[in-house]
Amino acid sequence: MEKIASFTVNHLKLKRGLYVSRKDMCGDVTVTTFDLRMTEPNAEPVMDMPAIHTIEHLGATYLRNGEIKDKVIYFGPMGCRTGFYAIFFGDLSPQEVYPYILDMCRFIENYSGEIPGAKPEECGNYSEQNLAMAKYYIKRYRQELEEHKRFTYPV
Length: 155
Fold this sequence. Notes:
By secondary structure, the protein is of the alpha+beta class. Helices cover 34% and strands 21% of the residues.
């Protein structure tokens, strides 16, 4: 079997950043998958599941209601719990989505109130949320993005 693209990235060198994971064609439309790497794989603890769940709810809500809502296909966590995938219509670069990802981070950092979609009739695991930890991870990620602007996978 062919190795999928994300398994060819050296996770021992991977730092927090915003990377193009892959680009796929669907007919004549390009779909770009971004890797929002929030923790360093195999070098620091993975993210807390309730915080991941909160980031997923808030991030998806923000992106699907924001300026680029018509380009958003998906926003959700990686199975390894070190970050998220954001999938958009279009042949996009990290620099093009960077301002929207920063805005999403600021939205989560400043969020207060009820988590969208966190009611029993709206979510299969509605009670597993942790806004305080979500804010911690997102703030750290945003600061790292602003300081280092890592947009290219290490070799």
